[in-house]
Amino acid sequence: MRRPAVAGRFYPASPEALLLELKRCFEGLPTREDASIKGVVCPHAGYMYSGRTAAHAYAVLPSVDTYVIMCPNHTGMGSGVALSTDTWSTPLGTVDVDREFVSALPRDIIDLDESAHIYEHALEVQLPFLQYRFGDGFKIVPICLGMQDKETAAEVGAEIQEAMERTGRRVVVIASSDFSHYVPVEMASRNDRYVIDALLRADVDEFYRRLAESGASVCGYGAIASMLYAVQPESGELLDYSTSGDSTGDYVAVVGYAAIAMR
């Protein structure tokens, strides 16, 4: 059992308080299932900072069999491409891994490794959003990326695509990532929108080029690229963009958050 690592810090630890916080995140957002969505980009900060932006993605997410969730490795622990097969626990209950999908992965580059996930927050914080929207009617495939170069992302995306074809599963791929880190809000907004523009055109090569050119500190860039390679979208839509300054009032050193739907 993979138990919560950041409950009580990134989001409330009690079910009642967590549900109230999620209700706040979704307040005023119409929920619908957009079946055209193949993948999304969601932030992974504390809910008080990025929960509202994340809710913009989850409000339109379609209900599917399996959500492949990919995140960057912030801890440095474990394999460079680490897949967890444990059942995951949150204050709202447990979430099972889709073991049939896991078995269908070629696993040429993806390793079975729990250690990368033990203390990692970036994937865990996505689960209560899924539980809030869809109860227990889904499974996940959790992948933590320590290696985020374009070649690795292409291999990971190809393996996910192959497992999708082998299983015939209805799948949405969730890429967990924040954008600029600890820069003035003007710089964050400029750099983030520059790299996001490449994502809206589903152009992986241009995405990596703009990351290098701008220096935008997008922590989950490999997760985003892997998602693009896996689902092969035609275009994207920016659903919401915000910064930590919107919550704290500090615009001198902000973190950028984006919710993006890929179709």
From TrEMBL:
Q: Which InterPro entries match?
A: MEMO1_fam (IPR002737)
Under CDD domains, the record lists: MEMO_like
Q: Which NCBIfam families match?
A: AmmeMemoSam_B, PRK00782.1
- Name the family: Belongs to the MEMO1 family.
- Which PANTHER family does the UniProt record give? PROTEIN MEMO1
- Protein name in UniProt: MEMO1 family protein HA299_01625
- Organism field: Methermicoccus shengliensis
